[in-house]
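Re: weekly structure request thread

Next one in the queue (108 aa):
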Amino acid sequence: MYRQGDVLIVPVAREALPPSVAALPPRPRDGRGRLILALGEVTGHAHAVVGPGTLVREPGLGGAGYLHLPEGGRVVHEEHAPIPLPKGWYRVVRQREYAPGAVRVVAD
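Done, posted below.
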């Protein structure tokens, strides 16, 4: 299990993936060729993965993301140390916070 800021990355066995993952469209890469796990709304900084792979995301606010890294990869961010990830599948979860009357994704 890996954490970088408000992003949690949990290894998942391929057999344990929800069946819906196969039907989700892959997320596009940004202009620098990165897979964006979370983008800071205030700073513009991003938790991103460099390296070959695919990211899909369940619909809806706070929907889980699933990251496939067939050769491994590295999570990078402008204010955090990089984290190497071995090849495999991962569930990507954004930290949420409670505010009276709502649960929301933490804003960076």
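The two ends are 21 Å apart (CA to CA). The chain has a mean pLDDT of 88.
Next request, please.
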